[in-house]
Design brief:
Keywords: Endoplasmic reticulum, Glycoprotein, GPI-anchor biosynthesis, Membrane, Transmembrane, Transmembrane helix. This protein is of the alpha+beta class. It folds into 2 domains: 174 residues, Sandwich (Immunoglobulin-like), CATH 2.60.40; 33 residues. Helix content is 20%, strand content 35%. It contains 3 helices and 14 strands. Strands 1, 2, 4, 7, 8 and 13 form a 6-stranded mixed β-sheet that branches. A 6-stranded antiparallel β-sheet has the order 5-6-3-10-12-11, with no helix packed on it. Strands 9-14 form a two-stranded antiparallel ribbon. It is elongated and about 80 Å long.
Length: 221
């Protein structure tokens, strides 16, 4: 590449991300447009998932078995029941697929889930901020310009070509948005006493009904 082409390629890479669907269970869609043709390179997005959102490793394993994704989760052991305040951040490496009508365009989606947050005072929503992903390329032909791409360590193999050791590279890109915000419904602290009272009464009522049914139709062993 000549210098002018290199600079155009470095400045031309863009990445966008969207959260599809509603509620606690979403699909994270990542789209990348490179400044130049990938030329047979493997393209991936590496994104940090904050504690408020996670990928279910069991769901991911099912999608991998069905060849619906090659995404890699780091670490691959996740407590899916943990609330946001006791969870840890994750790293998702999401291989992207080329779009049919655009040789420089790539996309992929993966299911993500919001975690429960602490009750808030005065607000019924908590914000989870998703930073813009890092764009990665893995090219076995070695034609990447050093001015645009730097070697990086990635905890996943490169699938650009089989049985050929390849190096992942990273570039600085121009995100369409600096960050993506997921609004998660939360309870209000002002309602804590009411929620505790209703929960206690419901528990006592259900236990009484079970005990009454047991006494009426059977014996307690």
């Amino acid at each position: 590449c000549v210098t002018s082409d290199v600079q155009a390629a470095c400045q031309g890479t863009t990445v966008t991300q969207e959260l599809l669907k509603e509620g606690f269970h979403r699909d994270l869609l990542v789209k990348v447009e490179l400044g130049e043709d990938a030329g047979g390179c493997a393209v991936a997005a590496r994104t940090r998932l904050p504690p408020g959102i996670y990928v279910d490793p069991y769901e991911l394993a099912t999608l991998q078995q069905d060849n619906l994704t090659k995404a890699v989760l780091i670490p691959d052991v996740v407590d899916v029941e943990a609330p946001e305040y006791s969870a840890t951040a994750l790293v998702l490496l999401l291989p992207l697929q080329a779009e049919p009508r655009c040789s420089r365009c790539f996309r992929a989606a993966v299911p993500v889930h919001a975690r429960y947050h602490r009750p808030s005072r005065g607000s019924q929503e908590a914000s989870v901020l998703l930073e813009s992903p890092e764009v990665l390329l893995c090219c076995c032909h070695g034609h990447l310009a050093a001015e645009c791409w730097e070697p990086v360590e990635v905890g996943a193999p490169c699938l650009a070509e089989r049985n050929v050791p390849c190096q992942w590279h990273s570039t600085t890109h121009r995100p369409a948005r600096e960050e993506l915000v997921l609004e998660v419904p939360v309870g209000l602290r002002e309602h804590s006493s009411l929620v505790c009272a209703v929960t206690l009464l419901t528990t006592v009522l259900c236990a009484s009904l079970i005990l009454a049914a047991t006494c009426r139709h059977g014996h307690i062993s």
